[in-house]
Design a protein that fits this description.
The chain is of the alpha/beta class and 223 residues long. The protein has helices spanning 21-34, 46-52, 73-86, 97-101, 105-121, 137-147, 168-177, 193-202, 212-221, and strands at 10-13, 38-41, 59-64, 90-94, 125-129, 154-156, 183-187, 206-209. The protein is globular, with a radius of gyration of 16 Å.
């Protein structure tokens, strides 16, 4: 990968609880300038992002069941529908971590099946956030193999709100145990071009970060 290619991997992200409309306008303007793959914004700002990015190739992502994942399935489904109706192209959904830690794999898979079915029918992409730092390697592997049975487009490492974010080890493990038609997104704590490249080399095809501009500027300096 050439340094100048990095922008095409980046989901330019702003998910702070005190995010403002002005923040989102700036985020979208930066995404247009740098040709980022997508912006990832809070659900309440999806329509604003959609308006700001009209007639561009930048996709709009938002979050579902964020950041802890233990929302009721009915709530997640409602969030998905509302986000798509507002203009979202991609849904970054935290799976039910509490179900996994309780050993309730039947519920965890049912949740993914229902959510993947609705995003598929509405022609949108579903990224399932595992929050790998809270899972054992065995749980990560089982999530990858179980969720690969359903019509999801991405598995994602982290929310960015746990104690630790993306790691090369987690991306490598996920890539090894996930069907090839499902992509890997790394997110959480990615602030440098060097780290982003390590994650891409390990198998990630998307990088979720609020440091997208900084990473691109670092890449330009390496030309």
């Amino acid at each position: 990968m050439m340094p100048t290619d990095i922008a095409a991997y980046i989901d330019h992200t702003m998910l702070k609880p005190n995010t403002t409309e002005a923040d989102i306008q700036q985020l979208c303007a930066e995404a247009i300038v740098h040709n980022f793959a997508a912006v990832c914004v809070p659900p309440t700002f999806v329509a604003i992002a959609q308006h700001a990015l009209v007639d561009t190739k930048v996709k709009i992502a938002t979050v579902v069941g964020f950041p802890f994942g233990y929302h009721a399935l009915e709530a997640k489904l409602a969030e998905i529908v509302a986000a798509i109706q507002a203009g979202a192209d991609e849904l970054d959904m935290v799976h039910n971590i509490a179900a996994i830690k309780s050993g309730n794999w039947e519920y965890a898979e049912k949740e993914i099946a229902f959510c993947a079915d609705i995003t598929s029918k509405m022609g949108k992409s579903l990224k399932v956030i595992l929050e790998t730092t809270l899972l054992t390697d065995e749980e990560i592997v089982r999530c990858c193999t179980t969720y690969s049975r359903h019509n999801i487009q991405f598995l994602k490492t982290s929310t960015g709100y746990a104690d630790k974010g993306a790691t090369v080890e987690a991306v490598t493990l996920m890539r090894e145990h996930t069907d090839q038609h499902i992509s890997i997104k790394a997110s959480g704590g990615i602030r440098t071009f060097a780290f982003a490249k390590q994650l891409i080399d390990a198998g990630a095809v998307r990088i979720g970060t609020s440091s997208g501009v900084q990473i691109v500027n670092e890449a330009i300096a390496l030309q």
